[in-house]
């Protein structure tokens, strides 16, 4: 765990309300925050909104070569990354199964799956080597109860969850062996040096599960709405900050339900 140490955290999908709230909360917790978006003007405005010291970076996360260039840029600034909070998403729906469009699927595949695959592959070694490595994504309750109209959305989120759980397995296999041989196979509960908990893990991949997110602008537009079951972006941000003070063994591979 971080034990008060300043960590380098990347917030992808940083231009939206959840990205701004998360970057602000991480900055307030004392971490070095790099917030990433595809549009320069939007991500610069979002970083300014998040607070002084938050660094905006531009990247097309659906391009593997661009994500590799992003890692090189961050490495040139601060070295390795300790956390990646992946907030890229988007919704597409239809009336039922037969009118699920290829265009909507392509959008969801790009945003929900491809960006996550690229970011996790490129930054995996950084996170696995950190004494407080954390990877997190935001998923939906729709995965557990998909509707016909939301078939493409639920399927894309389910794929992203499966990939994230595979990242969690990667962290388990990457941990040092109890006997010091460097084996990458799980060896059972052990006590390691700084940063590792009693399971031997120092890095974790987690899934935040929400019905939907709500932010102050949404509440202001519809003051009569109660938004039942929704998760406020400030609560998501607080949960993200909490990842870095919670033992990896308690987090790795977990689906954490928020807003209920």
Task: Please name the CATH topology.
Answer: Rossmann fold
Largest β-sheet summary: 7 strands, parallel
Mean pLDDT over the residues: 91
Write down the Rg: 18 Å
Strand segment count: 9
Protein name: SDR family oxidoreductase
Region (Disordered): 176-197
Pfam families: adh_short
Family: Belongs to the short-chain dehydrogenases/reductases (SDR) family.
Question: Notable features of this structure?
Answer:
260 residues; alpha/beta; Rossmann fold; two-stranded parallel ribbon; 8 helices; SDR_fam; SDR family oxidoreductase; SDR_DHRS6-like; KR_dom
Summarize the structure.
The chain is α/β, with parallel strands linked by helices and 260 residues long.
Structure commentary:
The protein has 260 residues and is of the alpha/beta class. The protein is built from eight helices and nine strands. A seven-stranded parallel beta sheet has the order 3-2-1-4-5-6-9, with helices on both faces. Strands 7-8 form a two-stranded parallel ribbon. α4 links the parallel β4 and β5. The longest helix has 28 residues, at 102-129. It is globular.
List the helices and strands and how they pair.
Blueprint: E1 8-12, H1 17-28, E2 32-37, H2 40-50, E3 55-58, H3 64-78, E4 83-86, H4 102-129, E5 133-140, H5 151-174, E6 203-210, E7 213-214, H6 216-221, E8 231-232, H7 233-243, H8 248-251, E9 255-257
Parallel strand pairs: 1-2, 1-4, 2-3, 4-5, 5-6, 6-9, 7-8
Helix pairs in contact: 1-2, 1-7, 3-4, 4-5
